Amino acid sequence: GGLGSARARSPASEEEAGSEVLSHCSSASEGTSPADEGAGSEAATEQGQEEEAEDRLKEHMDNLLDKSTRMRQAALQSLRLAFSSRILSEFLLERRLMLTDSLEKCLKKGKGEEQALAGTVLTLLCLQVGSGPEGEELFHSLKPLLISVLTDSTASPGARQSGARALGMCCYIAAADLEDLILCLSCLEGIFSPPSMGEEASATTQHGPLHCSALQSWSLLLTICPPSHIKSILDNCWLKLSPLLSSSSVTLRILAGETIALIFELAQDLEEDSYYQDTEFLCAQLKILATESNKYRAKTDRRKQHSIFRDILRFIENGEYQEETVRFGLECIYLDSWARQRTYQAFKEVLGAGICHHLQNNDLLREIFGLGPPLVLDAATVKTSKVSRFEKHLYNSAAFKARTKARSRVRDKRADV
Predict the structure, then answer these.
(1) What span, in angstroms and rounded, lies between the C-alpha atoms of 215 and 235?
(2) b/e per residue, 274-300, with b = 16+ CB within 10 A?
(3) Which residues does the annotated region (Disordered) include (predicted)?
(4) Residue 261 near residue 222 (C-beta atoms within 8 A)
(5) How confident is the model at residue 158 (pLDDT cuts 50, 70, 90)?
(6) Domain assignment of residue 103, yes or no
(7) Non-local CB neighbours of 204 within 8 Å, separated by 6+ positions
(8) Handedness of CA 384, 388, 394, 398 (dihedral sign)
(9) SS3 state at 331
(10) Beta bridge partners of 325
(11) With b meaning 16 or more CB within 10 Å and e meaning fewer, what string describes 47-73?
């Protein structure tokens, strides 16, 4: 699914889903020790659980070399779940070379689903290892293989899609040289660029998800481009992005619009006045997409498209961005720019329900979003901060009533408030 349609909300259910993933990965039951047991007994229980969890992880890593394809895929699924829901940096730093070799074999010899899962696990491994020398080494060792999978027209669309996501995320996290960044941008751009006249027209429809992943990764890397390279991108990107606004895929149309808004934002930061000469024509295109009423489009697709393209048009015409808030635990982050939203959505797609846990505890993510060191909270503070299920129900009921009254006042007027 495309990230353009996910507008960075943070419902209460997301935290519950994250906690379910964490409990699923835990190797032992969550029952707490009785009150009469001492702190030493609790510490011993925790240590036992931790050792059992590490043993299971080691077993999954060993299974990556199994002769059975089904066994390797099951091991990759388990590692994906564990890496996305727990912080395992120290454990993985000691075993990164062995794990890298195993993932390389899965990417080389595997097919379809196995390659796609290996790309996802590799992305999560890079996120766990971080942006230090170990992360750079990991990225450089597997970058050629990721590019090979991405550009291989005989590989499955799922494997190429995962390769595009892995290449963008790993480059964002661990690339230290400008040459690596430019190479990855060029490779991704070659995927989503409009097909040549000799290519079949069905290619865009057939590889829609692949084009979406490539465009997402490309726009993510734009957020870390130096100003000198941004200026060169501004000169020719419009020829590649404007045709995507007419794509049959609503996700690709939305991503193209959001990428255009991101480029406008980056150009404003550079104080570049001539980044797009025919702004009136572009705004006319965006207005059509913000009010399109073609019956052959699904109603849900039209609603999603209208909402997002109104935001894009408002930003390009007036410079207004609708700030969004993402809450996790006792903290929150503000998405007050297209660049910040693109970064958050990229990590959210990879981590899924584990995004809240990583925002609270992953040093890399906290550095990227300027959150500082992880908070150290005692059990009493955490318990008092949680809202009961009954209180959530009351709040949701009140919000629903208020929203219904507000809509009723303007429903007959058909006003665009």
Answers:
(1) 18
(2) ebbeeeeebeebbeebbeeeeeeeeee
(3) 1-56
(4) no
(5) very high
(6) yes
(7) 194, 195, 211, 247, 248, 249
(8) positive
(9) strand
(10) 334
(11) eeeeeebeeebeebbebbeeeeeeebb
> Quick count: other Cβ atoms within 10 Å of Cβ 7?
15
Kindly report the number of other CB atoms within 10 A of residue 232's CB atom: 11
Mean pLDDT across the stretch 164-185? 93
How far apart, in Å, are the Cα atoms of 187 and each of 84, 244, 245?
Answer: 27, 18, 21
The Cα-based distances of 13 to 17, 25, 71, 412 in angstroms read 6, 19, 32, 33
Alpha-carbon 62 to chain mean position: 28
Is residue 164 included in any domain, yes or no? yes
Helix axes 338-351, 157-174, angle to 10 degrees: 120
Residue range 385-411: mean pLDDT, rounded: 67
Q: At what angle do helices 178-192 and 157-174 cross, to 10 degrees?
A: 150
Q: Give the DSSP letter string of 170-209.
A: HHHHH--SHHHHHHHHHHHHHHHSPPPTTS-THHHHHTHH
What band does 408 get if pLDDT is binned at 50, 70 and 90?
A: low
Whole-structure pTM value:
0.79
* Domain interval for residue 89: 56-176
Does residue 27 register a pLDDT over 50? no
Nearest to 120 by CA among 86, 88, 154, 168: 168
Q: What is the C-alpha to C-alpha distance for residues 405 and 10, in angstroms, rounded to an integer?
A: 24
**Tokens (6 digits) for 270:** 């550079």
Q: Does residue 324 fall inside a structural domain?
A: no
What DSSP state is assigned to residue 328? E
Instruction: Give domain status of residue 157, yes or no.
Output: yes
Assess contact for 181 and 175: CB atoms under 8 A. Answer: yes
Q: In the chain, how many domains are there? A: 1
Contact (Cβ atoms closer than 8 angstroms) between residue 358 and residue 347: yes
Q: Residue 85 sits in a domain of what CATH number?
A: 1.25.10.10
Q: Which two tokens stand for residue 324?
A: 């969004």
Q: Using an 8 Å Cβ cutoff, are 325 and 334 in contact? A: yes
Q: How many CA within 13 A on the CB side of residue 400?
A: 6
What confidence tens digit (pLDDT) does each residue in 98-145 have? 999 999 999 998 888 999 999 999 999 999 998 889 999 999 999 999
Radius of gyration of the chain (CA): 23
**Alpha-carbon distance values, 240 to 46, 164, 190 (Å):** 54, 18, 10
